[in-house]
Amino acid sequence: MTDSGTPPQGMRGGLVNYGDEEFALFLRTAFIKGAGYTDDALDRPVIGIVNTGSGFNPCHGNMPQLVEAVKRGVMLSGGLPVEFPTISLHESFSHPTSMFLRNLMAMDTEEMIRALPVDAVVLIGGCDKTVPAQLMGAASANKPAIQLVTGSMLTGSHRGRTVGACTDCRAFWGRYRAQEIDEAEIREVNGRLVGSVGTCSVAGTASTMATVAEAAGIALPGSATPPAVTADRTRIAELTGRRAVGLAQEGLTIDRILTPEALENALRVLLAVGGSTNALVHLAAVAGRLGYRLDLDTFDRMSRETPVLVNLKPAGEHYMEDLHRAGGVPRLLHELRDLLHLDAPTVTGRTLGEELAEAPEPFPQDVIRPLDRPIYPSGGLAVLRGNLAPDGAVIKQAAASPRLLEHYGRAVVFEDAADLAARIDDEDLDVHPDDVLVLRNIGPVGAPGMPEAGYIPIPRKLARQGVRDMVRVSDGRMSGTAAGTIVLHVAPEAAVGGTLGLVRTGDPIRLSVADRLLQLDIPEEELAERARTAPAPARPKPGRGYGRLFTEQVNQAPEGCDFAFLRAEEERGAVPRPH
Ligand code: FES
Ligand code: MG
Question: How far apart are the CA of 383 and the centre of ligand 2, in A?
Answer without folding.
Answer: 20
